[in-house]
Amino acid sequence: MSEHPEETSSDADEATQEALAPLPDPEVDRLEAAVAGLARGALILKLSPKRTSLHREKLRRLAHEVKPIVMVGRGGLSDGLIAAIRRGLLDHELIKVKLLDAAPVSREAFALWVHEKTKADAIAWVGRTIIFYQKHPEKPKIHLPG
After folding, report:
1. Which residue has the higher pLDDT, 59 or 8?
2. Nearest residue to 22 via CA among 104, 109, 99
3. What strand order describes the sheet that includes 129-133?
4. What is the DSSP track for 64-107?
5. Beta pairing, strands 94-99 & 70-72
6. Residue 122 to residue 108: CA distance in whole angstroms
7. CATH for 127
8. Max alpha carbon distance in the chain (Å)?
């Protein structure tokens, strides 16, 4: 008899998941700490300081038909991800970003990260989908009241 018990398929699955888990990221830790304890409303106000409730309401209505154009998965936060978000904002002004279950960051921390990197407003989130808005610098398509 072997001294090592046979490895079951669930043990192998757990080992695979651990091997695929992202390495700890100090940036993610910083972002998570920054949003810890903030209520949803307070965070949305922090991430869209120039937007009134009427602006956010109109943008949420417009975003209803919009499909997510960026998906965030296991790769987490990267320069390529920010480039894709910037491109989407420049092309559309209003975009949705979907955080997949494998994403190594919370939606709140992710929204803060995008806001810091792009200055785009995080308008709202539903589940793990976040709505971002940034007015086009030359040819705005969306006109907000006031």
Report:
1. 59
2. 104
3. 70-72, 94-99, 129-133, 121-126
4. TTPPP-EEE-TT-S-HHHHHHHHHHHHHHSEEEEEE-TT-SS-H
5. parallel
6. 10
7. 3.30.110.60
8. 79
**pLDDT above 90 (res 15):** no
pLDDT in tens, 39-76: 988 999 999 999 999 999 999 999 999 999 999 999 88
Q: Confirm whether 100 is domain-assigned.
A: yes
* Cβ atoms within 10 Å, residue 113: 22
Q: Which domain holds residue 123?
A: 25-133
Tally of domains in the chain: 1
Q: Is 13 part of a structural domain of the chain?
A: no
Look at residue 20 and tell me if it is in a domain: no
pTM given for the model: 0.82
Q: For the chain, give the number of residues.
A: 146
Here the tokens at position 3 are 């001294």
